[in-house]
Amino acid sequence: MEHTAFVERVLKHLPSTSPGDFHFTSWEHAGRPTREGFGLMPIAGVDPARVIDAVMDVDHYLGNIEHVSECRSIKDARFKAPESVRFYQKVDIPLLGSVHHELVLHRLGTHKGYEVAAWHILGPETAALSSKVGLRSDYNHGAWLAAHGVLGYALGSAPKRDDVGMLKWKAMTTGADAAASRVLKANVEGMARWARRR
Prior knowledge:
Blueprint: H1 2-13, E1 23-27, E2 36-42, H2 48-56, E3 68-74, E4 84-93, E5 97-111, E6 114-121, H3 123-127, E7 135-147, E8 150-159, H4 166-172, H5 174-197
Parallel strand pairs: 5-7
Antiparallel strand pairs: 1-2, 2-8, 3-4, 4-5, 5-6, 6-7, 7-8
Helix pairs in contact: 2-5, 4-5
């Protein structure tokens, strides 16, 4: 599955020791137009179980996860809580518009000392969404990694090429790569705040 293969790539790039400050790394994969990458940072008081519970709580992303404008779980017999959840999500990207997709999020247990939850896109379901509502993701996979006092967020994503013009395409590929470190750091800090409030 896409999400487990992605997590394996992330684990290969983890630093050998816990970072003392925000750590970011990225890499190319399979000739895709955006790089994959992750941000990892020390955050005092991170409780891995609380973080992963928050990550799995997709019905409460709105108001707690930055830029998420719509998010709801979808019943699907293939994916059963609490181990996995299918959901629809729309994200508003400043100056660029909305991106939406259907995803499946999975609890993956402990890997290299981190509790991990990871997601992958549902391709046909996402392709069936309206491009008038938002740009559809071509691929979108990622993961949250939580250990005591350390939190990480990993991502690989790009919109469908047919849904965007050239300038927006460059902004959401080359531009996204340039902004990835800042965006991932903000996401890590935001998730830590939400997990503490739960």
